Amino acid sequence: MKAFTIKKNDADQRLDRFVAKSVPSLPSSLLQKYIRLKRIKVNGKGSKRDYRMVEGDLVEMYINDEFFEQPSEENAYLRVEKPGVDIIYEDENILLADKRPGLVVHPDENEKQNTLITHIQSYLYQKREWRPREENSFTPALCNRIDRNTGGIVICAKNAEALRIMNQKIKDREMEKYYLCIVHGKMTPAEGKLEGFIFKDEVKKQVYVTQKPQPGAKTAVTLYKTLKTNGKLSLLECELITGRTHQIRAMFASAGHPLLGDGKYGNQAKDKPYGRKYQALYSYRLKFAFTTDAGALEYLNGMEFRAPKVDFEDMYF
Length: 317
Hints:
Blueprint: E1 2-5, H1 15-22, H2 28-36, E2 40-42, E3 45-46, E4 58-61, E5 87-90, E6 94-99, H3 116-126, E7 141-142, E8 151-157, H4 160-171, E9 175-184, E10 191-201, E11 206-210, E12 218-229, E13 233-240, H5 247-254, H6 268-271, E14 281-288, E15 304-306
Parallel strand pairs: 8-14
Antiparallel strand pairs: 1-4, 2-3, 2-4, 5-6, 6-8, 7-8, 9-13, 9-14, 10-11, 10-12, 12-13, 14-15
């Protein structure tokens, strides 16, 4: 609880507007709810939201301490009133979310609040599974990431042990990750492997594929299988053997079969008849395939999960 004595400059102000300015991290819906529930009192009593305060009034706010912190990237979850998380699987250690295209996974220079991790943290906070005030440093964290305009399965660790184990399993490639994508043209052969070296240009935020090693380039391997084709477009299932930035997008573009709708590596002229504004790429299937001990997460070994719906799977065929 915190108490505020109304001074001259705050007088004649509506109660709800004073609270909004004093506690900027408190969502407006909660503010109104707390006034109704009399968790925000004036002179020891419940009050109307439109009460005009008088100099000397005592405003008491019985709300969680987290809300009194100044808004920042670290507590952005407090501003998410209704978390939008499509949960594929959840237990006491991990959560698998189906990220929709267009949503960034982490805050960046353009988006601080409406991100996947912020929504997940808000979801866990609101159901009181995660209590920031009782933690010294841990916050729920993502173990993998996918591009803004790519949809699909993202793993979130709900405790420090799960985060440590999952990060190691990803590093050791002890899980199988499958994507669906649509490429221009028909793959020859229909099933095969793309190999090369990927170099990342940090300035342009873009990667390049070469067939020969070069300083800073990393090995990249993608397996693919054609599921459907009409000659002009092909639906592929891809398995990532390595997990490089923009790997699928860059490798198929380099092979002469850019992804449909890919504004960075694609072909706008070929995309135009289809009207797609972002790449047809979805991380749709994940299998835990541990080859070494997974400790507290051993029960996940062999489990496989799928996204319930991929928007483009049956759209063009």
